[in-house]
Design brief:
alpha+beta; six-stranded antiparallel sheet; 3 helices; 14 strands; 47% strand; globular
Length: 166
């Protein structure tokens, strides 16, 4: 009888864990779904800038868990802010970017040649991760996401970082 109970418990754990992993498989949102989750503008460093919808992307990890990114028109920002801030990064659950943890929240981001930099809304840098180059990417877009066996690739052109659920 104990063997049957132990087997039942193990089976329950196996099914539960597999269900969790199945729910966290990332799904890149299509253009229609993007319209429902991408904000039309974003506040950063004391100003609001319009979103470039054509340069926005989002990924869903299971039910009601999203990461939404988009480039914004920074023409009204100071040269100092324009040099580091390109867009917004919104996550409604903790994620890993390039192996580093980022908590739930809304942030600004900017890519440099060597790194993706994440900023709080006051423009203070809170995270920096090394980027990689995808030399095989045939048609890079200014900003996009693609699913990968290890999570999601968050691209700016051919430069990318890995993004995954924490």
């Amino acid at each position: 009888m104990t063997l049957i109970k132990n087997f039942t418990v193990l089976l329950f754990i196996f099914v539960s864990v597999n269900g969790i992993f199945a729910q966290t498989k990332p799904e890149i949102l299509n253009d229609e779904a993007l319209k429902r989750v991408v904000p039309v503008s974003f506040y950063f460093a004391g100003q609001s800038a319009p979103t470039q919808m054509r340069n926005s992307a989002a990924v869903q990890f299971g039910k009601d868990r999203f990461v939404v990114v988009g480039m914004v028109d920074t023409s009204g920002y100071s040269t100092e802010i324009q040099g580091k801030y390109e867009g917004f990064f919104i996550t409604d659950f903790p994620v890993k970017i390039g192996g580093k943890s980022l908590n739930t929240g809304a942030y600004g981001f900017g890519f440099s040649k060597e790194a993706l930099n994440i900023f709080d809304l006051s423009s203070k840098q809170i995270l920096s991760v090394k980027v990689a180059e995808d030399a095989e990417l045939k048609r890079p877009r200014p900003l996009m996401m693609t699913a990968d066996d290890k999570g999601v690739r968050f691209y700016k052109g051919k430069t990318f970082v890995m993004l995954s659920a924490k």
